[in-house]
Specification:
Helix content: 40-55%
Largest sheet: 8 strands, mixed
Number of helices: 31
Distance between the termini: 67 Å
């Protein structure tokens, strides 16, 4: 227990009064879409209204079968969308940890556990090893207290805490021997009693939460572009449909047929697939990312992944494993003394500890000695000497059960251990030289000493022992094994990696060197604070390592990079990373060690904290956008022949080929083709060798849109030729409808095959793996066979029988379109990915 007198704390009445007046401020919560809101959004889609309108007309005409079929198609479409949206909402809800940490407070002179949200200013809080600190507080008493503040500062090593007599103004987190503890930090050693200074929004963690509320996320560009595309197509399609209905009705007098033809034309020209494909690609993209252990919280981030130009990464827990390991052992004598050095360090540590360095010592001892019982065996801990501000060393005294020797084992700051050992000038010079060398490699150094004490009485202080210096132990937070390869792949993809950490410059430089980053210049937080915006903007064009950075400085770096025209992805796991995560175009949080606040502020979460998953995420993001463009190009192309076939009869008085039931059938082919088939297409060969995509580029750039129109015109010409041939042969209306419809379906299949790849030839594209494609095509063939041979289906679609020569003509039309487009495609490739 702390040796100084602890504060008595508030009375229960005082605490409740303050809780009533001050309350507790939560951090911002994520938006939630209810089931009814999701259904309402879906029912407002124009295609759904057209399907229902056509169904009502057929119901009035007494055609119950066709009305029910249209209703079934509409219900299937709505159900798929609602299920996908609900799954996304459940994933978001599962992210939130709704449990409240508990706090041990002293009220009315009695210790009691209360929910952390009920702690108020003035409470006396007891913090013990393993506890989360419930509020910002000033230490009134402390004993060997070590606190992990990495979630606020980014420092990998716990910091020492010391008590202060009387009140003290709160300072910022970071650094040793300060009398302040902060909400959300973890006690890894010792214990203490602190008087609460700030709670909720007034705490350091709360200030970060307030900053999050002031940050407006980037609007999804792709969604804006898609809405504009849909609006333009819809206005043109509806105007054309209305004009065609009026012309047909006035010129031929058959208004019922005009309305049905107009609905079919409207359905053929309404690009309802655009928002469907965007939604499907985002949902399927999120699922595909989840297979790589990446959770997508905001679908808009997927569209930005291919545009990222700068990746700002935290060090602790992101580039490194966020665990201490022994990196180096130095002794004055032979290497054989290393086992003795490790055993002594173990005896100088707590037997069961949360401290990461002491856990690393225990792990090393278990490896070297095949367990620790041989070290502890027969010994009893009789006294501990804790850290003191004037002597940063601690000593454990052990005595054998049989009354044998008494051994004192010490570890601490190298200079403190050197002082205890009374080293001479030569050994002191070696100590300083070696410590400087190890620190330059980015490791944390501890000195170790031991002595056998003679006599029954123990000295009052550690200086009373005659210690023998054994050596130095270097600790490091190891770099993740796959980080260098991931950094190289980012560089080849034109993505610059920038490390931003709260750790010390020497540690940051060492990690950057191992990761393959350019660490020639390390910019410290103190240096950054002196730079104005113009100087910082210039600095950010070349600097890649930033150390001792405060949370508000991380945010400033991200915002300045954005002002420089960069598309910024930011990774992190601590509360201190949250504002920068939310401000970045793509915020990427660590899911394993990451805090709730960081996850809520981010748009993507790496579930296994693997930096290599980030590169897979970038690759998948580029692939998703590539395939999305292919799907959009296909949608434009396939609607041209459908709209042409719906418009021709209205303009020239030909028999109606396509009715709403035919359009609905085609949509059931087109929708999975543009959403499932194209989404499953594998990577293009140069995917990670391209520069990042311009974020302002359109989803359908001019050249790609022109290519789509050419595909559609050729497809319409082929189907129109079949239609004209059938009219010339004076085929019955039902047979003509079947002939043209089968031709349209086969031409549709040709358009799918042509758009599978921007660069690969047809032969290469055909052997590219895509099981969804062949499942779809097989299903289409089976459905066509049923529609052409089963009498009830033939009646539903108003089809007549086709002969082998008719089927041969439809197949010829599909093959002709495929070959012609494959011959033309090489001349249009340039600019497809601009």
């Amino acid at each position: 227990m702390p040796e100084s007198a602890p504060p008595v704390g508030l009375t229960e009445a005082q605490a409740q009064a303050r809780l009533q007046t001050e309350g507790f401020n939560d951090l911002p919560k994520a938006d939630h879409r209810t089931f009814l809101r999701i259904i309402g959004d879906v029912l407002r889609e124009p295609m759904f209204a057209l399907l229902l309108g056509a169904g009502v007309i057929y119901l009035v005409l007494g055609d119950l079968t066709e009305a029910l079929m249209l209703l079934v198609f509409a219900t299937i479409s709505v159900s798929i969308t609602v299920v996908q949206e609900l799954r996304s909402e459940r994933v978001l809800e599962a992210l939130r940890d709704m449990t409240s940490p508990r706090a041990l407070v002293i009220r009315d002179g009695v210790r009691k556990r209360i929910p952390g949200r009920e702690v108020v200013r003035g409470d006396a809080v007891v913090v013990l090893e393993g506890d989360r600190v419930p509020a910002d507080a000033v230490l009134a008493a402390a004993s060997n207290l070590l606190v992990d503040e990495s979630l606020l500062t980014g420092e990998a090593i716990p910091v020492r805490k010391s008590a202060v007599d009387g009140g003290a103004a709160m300072a910022r987190p970071g650094g040793d021997d300060l009398p302040f503890v902060f909400s959300g930090t973890l006690v890894v050693g010792g214990e203490g009693i602190a008087v609460v200074h700030s709670t909720g929004a007034q705490s350091e963690i709360g200030k970060i939460g307030q900053a999050l509320g002031r940050i407006v996320p980037e609007p999804p560009r792709l969604q804006r572009q898609t809405r504009l595309l849909v609006r333009n197509f819809a206005v043109f399609g509806m105007a054309t449909s209305l004009l065609a209905v009026l012309l047909y009705g006035f010129l031929r007098g058959d208004w019922l047929k005009a309305i049905l033809g107009g609905i079919a034309l409207g359905m053929s020209m309404l690009p309802e697939e655009f928002p469907l494909v965007l939604t499907a690609f985002m949902v399927m993209g999120a699922w595909r990312l989840s297979q790589a252990r990446v959770l997508t919280r905001r679908a808009a981030a997927i569209e930005m992944l291919g545009s990222a130009t700068v990746l700002c990464t935290d060090k602790t827990g992101t580039l490194t494993e966020n665990r201490m390991t022994i990196a180096d052992l130095r002794t004055l004598a032979t290497p054989g003394d290393q086992a003795r050095l490790v055993a002594t360090a173990l005896l100088a540590s707590a037997r069961e500890s949360f401290d990461p360095m002491e856990r690393a010592i225990k792990g090393e001892a278990e490896t070297r000695m095949e367990g620790t019982e041989s070290i502890y065996g027969g010994r009893e801990l009789v006294r501990q000497y804790g850290l003191r501000p004037g002597l940063l060393a601690m000593t454990n005294v052990w005595r054998r059960h049989d009354g044998g020797e008494t051994m004192a084992c010490a570890k601490g700051a190298p200079e403190a251990i050197g002082l205890l050992c009374r080293l001479g000038p030569e050994r002191l010079a070696w100590l300083r030289r070696t410590v400087d060398e190890m620190a330059g490699e980015g490791v944390r150094v501890l000195g170790v000493a031991r002595t056998v004490h003679r006599g029954p009485d123990l000295p009052e202080t550690q200086q009373g022992f005659a210690f023998e210096f054994l050596g130095l132990i270097g600790f490091s937070d190891p770099l993740r094994a796959n980080v260098p390869d991931a950094v190289r792949e980012c560089r080849s993809a034109g993505v610059r990696v920038v490390m931003i950490t709260g750790d010390y410059p020497a540690t940051a430089r060492a990690i950057a060197d191992r990761a393959g980053l350019d660490a020639n210049r390390v910019v410290s937080g103190e240096e950054l604070a002196r730079l104005d915006d113009a100087a910082l903007a210039e600095c950010l064009r070349t600097a890649t390592v930033f150390a001792r950075i405060m949370p508000e400085q991380k945010l400033r770096i991200v915002e300045m990079l954005k002002a420089n025209g960069e598309v910024v992805a930011m990774t992190g796991d601590g509360v201190n990373d949250a504002p920068a995560l939310k401000a970045a175009h793509i915020g990427i949080a660590m899911g394993g060690r990451g805090t709730d606040v960081a996850r809520e502020a981010s748009s993507i979460v790496l579930l296994d904290d693997d930096f290599g998953s980030l590169v897979r995420t970038l690759r998948l993001g580029r692939r998703i956008y590539d395939n999305l463009r292919k799907a959009m190009a296909y949608i434009v192309a396939v609607h041209v022949p459908i709209a042409g076939l719906a418009l021709l009869p209205l303009l020239f008085g030909f028999p109606l080929i396509l009715t709403p039931i035919h359009i609905a059938f085609l949509e059931m082919v087109i929708d999975p083709a543009c959403s499932i088939v194209f989404e499953a297409e594998p990577d293009e060969s140069d995917l990670m060798r391209r520069p990042p995509r311009n974020p302002e580029s359109r989803i359908l750039p001019g050249r790609l849109a022109g290519w789509s129109v050419i595909q559609g015109v050729l497809a319409f010409a082929a189907v129109g030729a079949v239609f004209a041939g059938g009219l010339a042969r004076q085929m019955p209306e039902t047979e003509l409808r079947a002939l043209v419809f089968v031709s349209l379906v086969l031409v549709n299949a040709s358009l799918i095959l042509v758009n599978r790849s921007f660069s690969a030839s047809l032969l290469v594209a055909l052997i590219r793996p895509n099981a969804s494609l062949w499942v779809l095509l097989s299903g289409v063939v089976a459905l066509l066979a049923v529609a052409l041979t089963w009498p009830p289906a033939m009646d539903l679609f108003r089809f007549g029988p086709l002969h082998l020569d008719d089927l041969g003509l439809t197949l010829l039309a599909g093959v002709a379109v495929l070959v012609a487009l494959e011959l033309i495609k090489p001349h249009w490739r340039r600019g497809f990915r601009s």
